Amino acid sequence: MTFSLPPLAISLARTMGESVNDAAVRSAADSMVRLGLRDAGYEYIIISDAWCKQKRCLKTDSLICDTEKFPEGLSATAEYLHSLGLKLGVVASLGARSTTDRPGMFEHEWADVEYLDRAGVDYIACDLTKLPARGELQTPLRRMGLAVRQAQRDIYLAVYTDRDIHTWVRSTGANAFCLKSFYNCSPAVECDPVSAGYSADFCFESCGDITFDSTESLRSQLTIAAAMSSPIVVDCDVDSLSDEALKLMKDPLLLSIMRDEEGRPARRLDDGVYCKMLTDCEYAVALVNFTEQEVTRSFCTYDFGLIRNSGYYCEAANVFTGEKTDFSDSLEVTLPAGSSAMYLMRLIER
């Protein structure tokens, strides 16, 4: 399995919804390659469950691909993505029916995973809505985890639910969890410090999928996702991305912080103030403002663990501008509404 670090993905699930089709997915894949997103590390394209029909096959009880949208079947779409070095993901429900009123996977987990496996699907984003009254959460998730493990392909399993599953979800085999249901999980915002403590290699907590209406909104969501080692799933029309948005999404320093090999989520020191330990004795400091008014955020070295008689001070560089600053006691930044700042910090001996 190759899922030790959180993934990077483009989602069409909300952008296209039920209008998703083979031509649109291929076009998005071509654009990801042309615009450099694939080379930056974005490897998945995730689509809604509208690729399939609203009823199962009467004879086999299996899912049925909507051939009006995918004339050659889902496997042909997946094969095209694979030829470009990309991977295909789908949204599914572990309940009886999905949010878009398509077949849920409840008590069909093994058969449906086998179907998706044969079709070349590499990522399944599961929403746990519409579970039957007799259906508790752990059993279907364990069935799903087992089925995914037995697949011929390496399939990434992400779980979205507004219920508290963080204390046990890792044991099911899931690779990511978001404590919000799928269609209510955006925009990406700050993680609860308790649930974030359960985020680690092979099973990271997601801050929520990224949707945005401005460059600052995108920057803030990417900043918090990078700080928390959250999977980055950007729901967007790839061809409509501005040059500024593309630059942010491909920022190599930001993405290296998000995918740091130690995979440690940041510790929240105060409202909107986070510090993340990185390899090579570096630290990422994230300052975010999700409010609708200007605020001043302060990173205090005392809260971080650095005291005056330690013999060290902080050297920090702004991730987005490269501007450098030194400080011993605190770093204060005034942030406009909805904005953020991020610093790469190292301790320097006096």
What report would you give on this structure?
There is one protein chain. With 350 residues, this protein is α/β, with parallel strands linked by helices. The chain folds into two domains: 8-258, Aldolase class I (TIM Barrel); 267-349, Golgi alpha-mannosidase II (Immunoglobulin-like, Sandwich). Helix content is 24%, strand content 24%. The strands form three sheets. Strands 7-6-5-4-3-2-1-8 form an eight-stranded parallel sheet. Strands 9-10-11-16-13-14 form a six-stranded antiparallel sheet. The model has no long low-confidence stretch (mean pLDDT 93).
Question: Could you give the distance between the termini?
Answer: 44 Å
| CATH topology tier name of the largest domain | TIM Barrel
CATH architecture of the largest domain: Alpha-Beta Barrel
CATH superfamily of the largest domain: Aldolase class I
- Helical run tally: 10
Q: What is the strand arrangement across the widest sheet?
A: 7-6-5-4-3-2-1-8
Specify the biggest β-sheet. Answer: 8 strands, parallel
Sequence of secondary-structure elements: EHHEHEHEHEEHEHEHHEEEEHEEEE
Question: Can you tell me the overall shape?
Answer: globular
The secondary-structure class comes to: alpha/beta
Total domains: 2
- What is the C-level CATH assignment of the largest domain? Alpha Beta
